[in-house]
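pinging the channel bc i need a second pair of eyes. not urgent but kinda urgent?? the chain im working w is below, pasted from the shared doc
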Amino acid sequence: MSTLPACPQCTLENTYPDGDNFVCADCGFEWPAVAAASDEEADAVVRDANGNILNDGDAVVLIKDLKVKGSSITLKQGSKVKSIRLVSGGDHEVDCKLDAGQFMLKACFLKKV
C-alpha cells in the first residue's frame, strides 16, 4: 500500500512525488508536499471540550456522566483524572485510570483542570 496521500481535488490515489510537490496523474493537480506533512501534525493536537490543548500528564475532569458499554458502571460528572495519556489512532484520544478501572475516553467529554 502506498504512503502517498490521495489527491485533494479528485480524491483518487494515483499520485506521485515530483520534487517538492505531489502530482495527481489523473487530473494533473499539484500541491506542495510540505503542506501534507503539516496537516498530519495539526491533526495530532488533542483539545478538550473548551478548546484547551491537552498534553500527557494533564489533570482533567469529566463534564458529563458517561455510561460504560458492556457494564453497569457509570463514570460520574466531576470525576477527576490526575494523569492522562494521549494515544493516536482509533476514535478515542485519551487513556486514563479511574477508581473503576482503565478507560479510553474522547477528549470532547473532558475539561482541563
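so DSSP finds one helix and eleven strands in the chain. and The first strand starts at residue 15 and ends at 18. — does that match what u expected or am i reading it wrong
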